[in-house]
Amino acid sequence: MTRSHKASERHYISRIGWLRAAVLGANDGIISTASLIVGIAASPADKSAILLTGVAALVAGSLSMAAGEYVSVSSQADTEAADIARETQELQDFPEAEIEELTQIYVGRGLEAPLARQVAEQLMKTDALKAHARDELGFSEHTEAKPIQAALTSAITFASGAILPLLAMWVSPRPLIVWIVATCAILFLGLLGALGAVAGGSNMGKAVFRVTFWGAIALGVTAGIGKLFGAVI
Fold it and tell me: Which residues in the chain land under pLDDT 70?
């Protein structure tokens, strides 16, 4: 591999930790806030009540996303720590068995047994725990649980997503809030899908369709529920 090729080589897996939380937070912020606004706007509520609903959705949603991400990713971190502790003890108590275990993993990946044994021994001399964490347990620095990072990313991106339909509602005439907010929300979701695809190196069309399709369903359902309790003004 040439130096120029290596320099231009791009891998997106390193972004997976924060990208997942960012897309989830922004997507939820747009959909949940826009859906609440549309649902309330489809009833006889006045604009101040709709605004209050939107602000409450932004604040409560951001805090909920942060708490939920922190708790769930902390559980992942606890599980990882428990597995690492168990593996550390096994390496101390059964070193030969652990070498054989690593050898069989490499044999399963296509290496001949003598070479697999040599690789296992060499890697365990360098960093036995790291070798087993990566190849036996499947741990990676790119997928390592980071509760604080996930919580902050989700909270910030939720608020960033939620503020968009809130602003659209603020500048809309009361009779047109439902249609303007719903349309803007679909556009915002499409933009989010495109940005997420670019950041993650995935198919843009598929990402845009996915977020706009489910967003449209959520908006339609909540507008229908709002209309059941009033009339679109």
Answer: 1-21, 140-145, 199-202, 226-227, 229-233
Q: Record the pTM.
A: 0.70
**Nearby residues of 60 by Cβ (< 8 Å), 6 or more positions away:** none
Which residue shows structure tokens 């968009």? 164
For residue 167, the model assigns a pLDDT of 93
pLDDT of residue 199: 67
Cβ density class 191-223: b for 16+ within 10 Å, e for less: bbbebbbeebeeeeeebbebbbeebeebbeebb
Q: How far apart are CA 121 and CA 103, in angstroms?
A: 8
- Encode pLDDT of 61-91 as tens digits: 999 988 988 898 888 888 888 888 888 888 8
Q: Are 174 and 47 in contact (CB under 8 A)?
A: yes
> d(Cα 47, Cα 59) in Å, to the nearest integer?
19
Q: What distance lies between CA 45 and its chain's CA centroid?
A: 34
Angle (nearest 5°) at CA 57 between 56 and 58: 90
Cα(194)–Cα(107) distance, integer angstroms = 41
Q: Can you tell me the distance from the alpha carbon of 58 to that of 106, in angstroms, rounded to the nearest whole number?
A: 50
- Helical ranges in the chain per DSSP H: 3-8, 16-41, 47-93, 95-108, 113-135, 147-170, 177-200, 204-228
Distance CA 158, CA 68 (A): 12
DSSP, res 169: H
Provide the token pair at 24. 């989830």
